[in-house]
Specification:
The complex is a heterodimer. By secondary structure, chain A is mainly α. Helices cover 59% and strands 0% of the residues of chain A. Chain B has a three-stranded mixed β-sheet. Classes of the chains: A mainly alpha, B mainly alpha.
């Protein structure tokens, strides 16, 4: 999961990455909700989120506090080290890649992580009321 | 639907109606209209999710509503720019040449929305909109319309799109992270003086240290992007300005 691997996916900046991850995290949570209601779902967003996190996310130093907050929000004890954080995120990714065989409880935990990740990324967005997506670029 | 969901759904419906009305404007170029169509689909998708959200858990429903709030706020600002891009006050003669420059530097699928804005500084939404990844949205300040440097300044804005399209964040990420780590190692004593609670902390593993590093990394990355964009603007228009004047 080197950062250079991210060049294989659509080019995105930090800001866009936050948005994309944020949108995907919410869509993944919604897919998991649907599954718990009707018992079947394609898990497209879950797959894409897992792919994006694998390719880019975990090695991105800027996103580390976001992952830390997201994991903490799910009720898990705070990560004690960078290795511990990565190890937990690897567990989450592994669950994302095995949704077909996951238990109801595991899917609910995964949903909670997706919601918490969405929340953490949304909080990370610039808070300008006029331009909520990106702080204004001042050039002159 | 409960009252809250209903009110958010109403917001989306109103915005969608506004997009439909805006689309009827007399746009000189098709990019603005295409952007509105994409945004409309985005609104419809989130609206559909709200309609089915009654059976979702409270946490997911709240996350969805919060997302919709951001979406409405963001799209409203963009629709404002798109609406103003149809105004006859805009420098339409600059649109096509600048779009050509955008396509040459960003990619053949680059789209452009150029608008005269009542902001004191030029601004851009180059790489930030997941909804409109191919669009370069540039606002030029009407109060500075007598300033010959304003249009060349758009070259800087284009630099942000090039940065994004060529994934330069990933390209420089490893390098910048390496320099941040090196600086921490070299100045550990100064760091511990500033953060006495982190005296003796493992600089590579401690989570508090990682959070501080992340903040520094983000600032350094933003600065690198700004400097890169400055040079793009400079290279695009350097030497041509005397002819403009």
């Amino acid at each position: 999961m080197s950062s250079s691997a991210s060049s294989a996916i659509s080019p995105i900046s930090n800001s866009t990455a936050n948005l994309t991850l944020s949108d995907l995290a919410l869509d993944a949570a919604i897919e998991l909700e649907r599954y718990s209601i009707v018992g079947r779902e394609k898990f497209e967003a879950v797959g894409q989120l897992s792919k994006l996190l694998s390719q880019r996310g975990l090695s991105d130093l800027a996103l580390m506090p976001v992952y830390d907050r997201a994991l903490a929000s799910t009720g898990a004890p705070a990560a004690v080290s960078k290795s511990d954080l990565y190890s937990r995120l690897e567990d989450v990714l592994s669950k994302m890649n095995s949704t077909a065989t996951a238990s109801v409880n595991e899917l609910e935990l995964l949903r909670d992580f997706c919601v918490a990740l969405h929340e953490a990324l949304l909080t990370n967005r610039p808070q300008s009321a006029r331009q909520p997506y990106l702080e204004k670029r001042r050039i002159i | 639907l409960n009252q809250t969901s209903l009110s958010f759904l109403t917001k989306l419906k109103k915005l969608e109606q506004q997009l439909t009305i805006t689309r009827l404007a007399d746009f000189s170029y098709s990019d603005a209209r295409d952007a509105l169509d994409i945004l409309k689909i985005r609104i419809q998708v989130r609206g559909g999710q709200i309609e089915e959200s009654e059976s979702f858990s409270t946490a997911t429903r709240q996350a969805l509503l919060r997302e919709v709030n951001h979406l409405v706020s963001g799209i409203t600002a963009i629709v404002g720019i798109i609406t103003r891009s149809a105004s006859v006050r805009n420098p339409f003669e600059l649109y096509a040449p600048f779009l050509e420059i955008c396509k040459s530097l960003v990619g053949h699928d680059a789209r452009l929305i150029l608008s005269s804005e009542w902001e004191y500084v030029p601004f851009t939404y180059p790489q930030s909109l997941a909804e409109l990844p191919q669009f370069i949205i540039i606002g030029l300040p009407a109060p500075e319309s007598d300033n010959v440097l304003i249009f060349p300044a758009a070259g800087h804005e284009l630099g942000h799109s090039i940065w994004s399209r060529h994934a330069l964040t990933s390209h420089f990420g490893e390098q910048i992270e390496g320099r941040v780590n090196e600086a921490f190692r070299q100045h550990q004593t100064k760091f511990e003086d500033a953060y006495p609670n982190l005296k003796g902390a493992d600089l590579d593993q401690d989570m508090f240290v990682q959070n501080i590093k992340a903040s520094i990394f983000s600032s350094a990355m933003s600065q690198a992007e700004e400097t890169f964009s400055d040079f793009v603007g400079l290279l695009l228009f350097w030497g041509k300005l005397p002819f403009c004047v």
